[in-house]
């Protein structure tokens, strides 16, 4: 079984850096609750074996995946971060993404 969860959209537009960071921290906590609920749901329905839960993320999803495995490493059998955006400061001047 595959459970696909998508996270989209930015939160910082029109806000100060401090406001944007606070909102992102709050969103991470909400994201974690939602992921935990989704995993509990599929396990509770007998749709997935808890020992086979894996997580994969690309770009910002890679960042979210690293957050998840950092917060609950025992919840996942495997993890893969593809092109994670974990340090935007290092991307300035080197990325081909125009909004960085």
Automatic annotation (TrEMBL):
The keyword Iron does not apply. The keyword Repressor does not apply. Keywords: Hydrolase. Signal peptide: none annotated. Pfam families: Peptidase_S9. InterPro entries: AB_hydrolase_fold (IPR029058), Peptidase_S9_cat (IPR001375). Residues 37-97 form the Peptidase S9 prolyl oligopeptidase catalytic domain. Gene3D superfamilies: alpha/beta hydrolase (3.40.50.1820). It comes from the Eukaryota. GO terms for biological process: proteolysis. GO terms for molecular function: serine-type peptidase activity. This is Peptidase S9 prolyl oligopeptidase catalytic domain-containing protein.
């Amino acid at each position: 079984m595959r459970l696909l969860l998508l996270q989209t959209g930015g939160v910082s537009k029109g806000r100060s850096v401090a406001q944007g960071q606070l909102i992102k921290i709050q969103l991470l906590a909400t994201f974690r609750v939602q992921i935990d609920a989704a995993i509990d749901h599929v396990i509770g329905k007998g749709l997935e074996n808890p020992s086979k839960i894996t997580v994969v993320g690309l770009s910002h999803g890679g960042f979210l995946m690293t957050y998840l495995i950092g917060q609950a490493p025992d919840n996942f059998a495997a993890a893969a971060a593809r092109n994670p955006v974990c340090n935007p400061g290092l991307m300035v001047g080197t990325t081909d993404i125009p909004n960085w």
